[in-house]
Design a protein that fits this description.
This protein is of the alpha+beta class. The protein has helices at about 45-90, 100-110, 150-160, 200-205, 215-220, 225-245, 285-290, 315-330, 345-355, and strands at about 115-120, 125-130, 135-145, 175-180, 185-195, 250, 260, 270, 275-280. The chain starts with about 45 loop residues before the first helix and ends with a helix.
């Protein structure tokens, strides 16, 4: 039954009673009917609409961001795998090297003049040279002293280690030369790119450098903490490549500041692979197998891993030990062979004690 509020004329003008039996859900109307007020619906559909609009905006945006992150991750991983594969599968770099004769190197270094001598070591001397036929390219010519025992073996080891590797933090080799000199004697040399800033040892200990190969500018060199950190990262990157991204693991065996060269931007380049060892990919090597080798790993006192002195073969862990000593030296400015380290005091204990203080 419907009751209209304006039903008060005609036959309804004399109505005295209204019967609404069975209409329990009626509400509102004129006051005389005494119906309960109708419930007010406050934006129920409007709330749902807001939720739908919000989800339609937020959900696609979230999916778009997640998709972009996933795409970036996939592209980054693919590029890194491609770079690693490119490093490890490069053809022998011997094909890319310059062919230089003894006489070309003789002219480039002005007859291996003392004025061009930039360093010397147990196995030979290093000269600065200029290759006139190759755009006046500056090079460092490492001439081996073949009278020293093991020099020829060192030359072969370094050539073998360097022929298949290429990394921004490894010193680039320009050429090899194995021939006869003007006196008829055997001559072996390696030619590298020349880096103006010298080696890291000159920067860590400038005050100790007093020989004729350095100048006043060298003795005033210093590195701030950020530069040291960047150099440490460069060296770690080089070791990571040698240990994990080559066809065979390459163990440097002689990591120290004098074997780390710096370019004009102070980017570090690891040098001197004369003691390097090429290891096959590891296959569950037992400790007995590791101690069965009689290969003598000399390295450098203070930097060589202690296990090498006990007859253990070269390993990547040995390079990690040398790297840690290098880090401590960079932080403290103390060599591991410093005169202050006597008895049980060494560089490691020195740093450990300072940390506890």
């Amino acid at each position: 039954m419907r009751v209209f509020s304006n039903a008060n004329t005609g036959v309804f003008s004399n109505a005295s009673q209204i019967s609404l039996i069975g209409n329990n859900k009626l509400c509102g109307g004129i006051p005389e009917l005494e119906f309960p007020p109708c419930p007010v619906i406050k934006g129920k559909n409007r709330g749902k609409l807001k939720v739908i609009i919000l989800l339609s905006i937020v959900l696609p945006a979230t999916l778009l961001v997640l998709g972009a992150l996933l795409l970036y991750f996939l592209v980054y991983q693919k590029r890194e795998r491609r770079m690693v594969a490119g490093f490890s599968s490069m053809p022998p770099r011997i094909d890319e090297l310059l062919w230089l004769s003894y006489h070309e190197l003789l002219r480039a270094t002005s007859g291996f003049s003392p004025e061009n001598l930039i360093g010397s070591g147990n196995f030979g001397a290093v000269y600065k040279g200029r290759l006139e036929k190759h755009g006046n390219k500056l090079v460092a010519v490492k001439v081996l002293d073949l009278q020293k025992n093991g020099a020829s073996k060192r030359f072969k080891a370094e050539c073998k280690a360097l022929r298949n590797i290429h990394h921004r933090n490894l010193l680039s080799i320009v050429s090899y030369c194995s021939t006869i000199d003007s006196k008829g004697d055997e001559f072996k040399a390696q030619v590298y790119e020349f880096l103006e800033n010298g080696n890291l040892d000159l920067w860590l200990h400038p005050a100790e450098t007093t020989d004729q190969t350095t100048d006043q500018a060298t003795s005033s060199r210093s590195l701030n903490l950020l530069q040291k950190l960047n150099i440490a990262i460069d060296v770690a990157s080089a070791l990571h490549y040698l240990h994990d991204h080559c066809e065979a693991e390459i163990v440097h065996c002689d990591l120290k500041p004098s074997n780390i060269l710096l370019d004009n931007d102070l980017v570090a380049h690891v040098d001197d692979f004369g003691l390097a060892r090429l290891l096959p990919k590891p296959v569950n090597t037992s400790s007995e197998q590791r101690t069965s080798s009689t290969i003598a790993i000399k390295g450098s006192i203070g930097y060589a891993a202690p296990e090498y002195g006990m007859g253990l073969v070269a390993s990547t862990q040995g390079d990690v030990y040398s790297y840690c000593i290098l880090l401590l030296e960079m932080i403290t400015g103390r060599r591991p062979t410093d005169d202050m380290f006597v008895d049980d005091l060494d560089l490691h204990n020195y740093v450990n004690g300072a940390l506890h203080e």
